[in-house]
Amino acid sequence: MTIASNLGFPRIGHRRELKAALERHWAGELDAPGLAAIGRDLRARHWKLQGGHGISHVPSGEFSFYDHVLDTACMLGAIPPGYGWSDGPVSPATYFALARGAQGLPALEMTKWFDTNYHYLVPRLHGGQRFALTENRPLAQFREAASLPLRTRPVLLGPVSFLMLGKTTDGSDPLDLLDGVLPVYARILRELAEANVAWVQIDEPVLALDLPQRAKAALGHAYAVLHQGPAPEILLASYFGPLGDTLATAAALPVAALHLDLVRGATDLDAALAALPAERWLSLGVVDGRNVWRNDLRATLGLLRRVADRRGTRRLMVAPSCSLLHVPLDLRQETRLDPEVKGWLAFAEQKLDEVAALARGLDEGDAAIAAQLAASDAAVRARRASTAAHRAEVRERLAAAVPEMETRASPFPQRQAAQRHRLGLPPFPTTTIGSFPQTAEVRRARAALGRGELTADAYERRVEGWIAEAVRWQEDTGLDVLVHGEFERNDMVKYFAEQLDGYAFTQHGWVQSYGSRCVAPPILWGDVSRPRPMTLRWSAYAQSLTRRPMKGMLTGPVTMLQWSFVRDDLPRETVCRQIALALRDEVLDLETAGIPVIQIDEPAFREGLPLRRAERAAYLRWAIACFRLAAGGVRDETQIHTHMCYSEFNDIIDAIAAMDADVISIETTRSDMELLRVFADFAYPNEIGPGVWDIHSPRVPSPEEMATLLQHATAAIPPDRLWVNPDCGLKTRGWTEVRAALANLVAAARTLRAAT
Ligand SMILES: CN1c2c(nc(N)[nH]c2=O)NC[C@@H]1CNc1ccc(C(=O)N[C@@H](CCC(=O)N[C@@H](CCC(=O)N[C@@H](CCC(=O)O)C(=O)O)C(=O)O)C(=O)O)cc1
Ligand SMILES: N[C@@H](CCS)C(=O)O
Ligand SMILES: [Zn+2]
């Protein structure tokens, strides 16, 4: 019988209960036992509901209070010295100090989880590191479920992925530590086997990357070692892309089952069917765990039957493509979604229904799931026929867009001269990245507007008040290029999506971004167009208050795409070009209104880079073109900025240069300007604002610290091309720190000016 299986479930809860509990705990309003109890309640509820949706392999152990990679590091005793741990279970205080920092203790580095918008904490390792089991987490959660009583399948992040996701402080290869970590994994598996656990899921998402031979050998070695000891049946999970040339390595591993992501890695299927021995179980990830579209059950059943014809159904599992961490929990909570669009969607709970229906349909035939098939067929037909999703005027405009629209009128040196003449800025001009603190007052006002307790007019007056205060304060502080502060924005993507045609929004569609921070990605379901200006009103108002240049602030087309749930019936490139054209109109409106500087943020540009090198050039080609299409219509004297944070630029510096923004601001503080080396080595031709204030930390850097960073920057970039700014926007910070740090930043710029 085919097994309906799941790989992971969202942790935050239907109403973000985990977020609320964590933030109360950090504020000292909820003690550690109270937080633990909320974790237990959430787990129990989530296990029960998965069973209720017909899933027989329900995952356990993937719940986390902050991040599952951090949990793995803590379980393995991979905790840097100084955080208050010596042996045994890791205390909540140590755990959260690693996650968020504490007095004098920096947080672990945080970075993107593969090509998703989830962030994990990077294990800080060192050559010769010793590992020790602090607590068998999967076993503890398996037992917790068993007491309910519910049978679950424990989940572990595999040893090779764990090491490859980490970084060593001494620059040695983390894979050198494999033999140190394997005995701990062997013990975890032995203890699970002793507790009569039937199956364990081991995630090795690095299988979706271009793996060097050494990593492939590490996989072979690791699973050969783990195979020698007692262990439950191992389901090895790969996701986020095809295995491609790693398929042979994966197929040869001595594990009972292999999970394939057949949404992003459909190309693997035939090779996998040929390569996998008959006794190997196959877990078919056919329901998209990264997007919100309803599955075409009939088409998927066709694929499953093709597999069953080759292998029978005795050793088959049906599953989502990856953990459901990346999708919202339950569509039934959405009472305000347009019913037409709602009919096309499936969130985590609905995806489990799809998995269960597919497993049943495969075993028992179409008649057994006739109602689900009919509903799925109707949704597929309705979506294809939707006139709002396919609009001739948008298609025609896109078809008429010519390559010249992607190129500014003059090359950079001419534009630079025109902009210098117009703006009259001092050397080392100072600016910020856009947002000022989203205080409780700001969020409360917006929530009141949403509830109808504040009129749109009253809300707008308040936003104007915050803008006026921010403009005055920036002038007094001596900043050169001002911003309006983005007070009116709930989120840098959602705010724009709300004003574009083709997008829908959820009330409760939250997805964890990191720790307690969540995002509610908008749903891009139809052809995109801009019915009216989006930011013009706020930027023009802000500019009317000052003679200094005001910077208009937009989210770029690639980031709009990356941080939305995007329709899967059009190439991403086409959708992105539609957004780019809509943004181009906004850019031109800002220019016409006299806004002299326009920033088009692209923090997700790097994240969009495909995991496999072979696919990168094509992505970069259209991503660059989309940015240039949005920016390319302005006159020489209008200065275009872009901003990127969280980025490694080494392998895409030529693409960054090809975007041809007049100024780029980047996050550089934590790397002590190391990142600038890439720009210097490439001889990056345009202007650069390397961040001199790490805005992820509440610490206020001194003017001397910032001046030192700037001096380091002048070693890499000619001083007349340097700007002075923080690493990123200030929406998560408080005003006290912002006031102090920006005053110091202006002082640092003045020191540099005096010295040149
Ligand atoms: C820059 N980053 C972003 C990413 N992705 C995005 N889509 N947006 C980003 O900014 N990816 C990479 C990084 C990730 N970093 C962050 C940083 C901060 C957050 C964050 O603060 N998230 C907020 C939610 C933001 C939001 O949408 N706010 C809305 C709704 C606020 C809300 O929850 N309201 C309550 C009622 C409040 C009240 O009554 O007082 C409610 O609706 O229940 C708004 O401001 O209007 C978070 O709280 O997690 C995310 C990613
Ligand atoms: N303009 C945005 C960029 C964040 S990446 C902000 O300042 O918040
Ligand atoms: Zn940023």
UniProtKB/TrEMBL annotation:
Signal peptide positions (record): none
Binding-site residues for L-homocysteine, renumbered to this chain: I433, G434, S435, E486, D601
Protein function: Catalyzes the transfer of a methyl group from 5-methyltetrahydrofolate to homocysteine resulting in methionine formation.
Catalytic residues, chain numbering: H696
Binding site for Zn(2+) 1: H643, C645, E667, C728
Name of protein: 5-methyltetrahydropteroyltriglutamate--homocysteine methyltransferase
Catalytic activity: 5-methyltetrahydropteroyltri-L-glutamate + L-homocysteine = tetrahydropteroyltri-L-glutamate + L-methionine
PANTHER family: 5-METHYLTETRAHYDROPTEROYLTRIGLUTAMATE--HOMOCYSTEINE METHYLTRANSFERASE
Keyword list, A-Z: Amino-acid biosynthesis, Metal-binding, Methionine biosynthesis, Methyltransferase, Repeat, Transferase, Zinc
Chain ranges of the Cobalamin-independent methionine synthase MetE N-terminal domain: 4-309
EC number: 2.1.1.14
Listed pathway(s): Amino-acid biosynthesis; L-methionine biosynthesis via de novo pathway; L-methionine from L-homocysteine (MetE route): step 1/1
Cofactors, names only: Zn(2+)
